[in-house]
Design a protein that fits this description.
There is one protein chain. Helix content is 86%, strand content 0%. It starts with a helix and ends with a helix. α1 packs antiparallel against α2. The chain has a single domain, classed as Helix Hairpins, CATH 1.10.287. The protein is mainly alpha-helical. Keywords: Coiled coil.
Length: 184
């Protein structure tokens, strides 16, 4: 190929490569925004986890209190509400049965386990999404770096081609001048 053909091809390739790099940069920026959104979601979920932990602790205390009341009731030391022994004539009548306390205890325990499972699933899902997004962002960064390298190589080749063309023109001019001088 002639230098002019190389120059034309390079002039055609460079804008295409620049456009591709710009497109990759836009995609990379989109991925950064996605990662930022995921990090915000992660922070929100961490806050939610803390709130759930407090709820879990509160439910745990409630379960422990219900267990304590149940033991007292079983031992005959108090009723299901933790009040003094119901056999004491001065004590108020029982408002809750032992079965109701057990049912409440089981419901609270089941609810606690269900909430913990939901929370663990949400955190696991978020971590998976974050890992995927980081992988995609790394791939885009790698592609952008490759395209920038290709663009730089193409620009360097174009510059070298321009230098070679200028050298060839100067040489041709020198030959023409020498030929014109020898004809005189």
């Amino acid at each position: 190929r002639t230098m002019g053909a190389w120059d034309l091809e390079l002039r055609r390739c460079v804008p295409d490569l620049e456009g591709r790099v710009q497109g990759m940069n836009l995609r990379l920026q989109g991925q950064r925004q996605t990662i930022h959104a995921l990090e915000k979601r992660n922070a929100d979920l961490t806050t939610l986890v803390s709130a759930r932990d407090m709820t879990v602790e509160a439910l745990g205390r409630k379960v422990a209190e219900l267990g304590r009341r149940l033991k007292l009731a079983q031992a005959g030391l108090g009723d299901a509400d933790g009040d003094p022994n119901p056999n004491d004539p001065s004590a108020a009548p029982q408002s809750k049965s032992l079965g109701a306390i057990l049912a409440t205890h089981r419901r609270a325990e089941a609810e606690l386990k269900e909430r913990v499972a939901e929370l663990e699933a949400a955190v696991r899902q978020l971590r998976e999404k974050e890992t995927r997004a980081r992988g995609v962002a790394a791939t885009f960064r790698s592609h952008a770096a490759e395209l920038k390298k290709k663009l730089n190589d193409a620009v360097a080749t174009k510059d070298q081609g321009s230098k070679n063309a200028a050298h060839q023109r100067a040489r041709a001019e020198s030959i023409r001048s020498a030929a014109a001088a020898s004809e005189r």
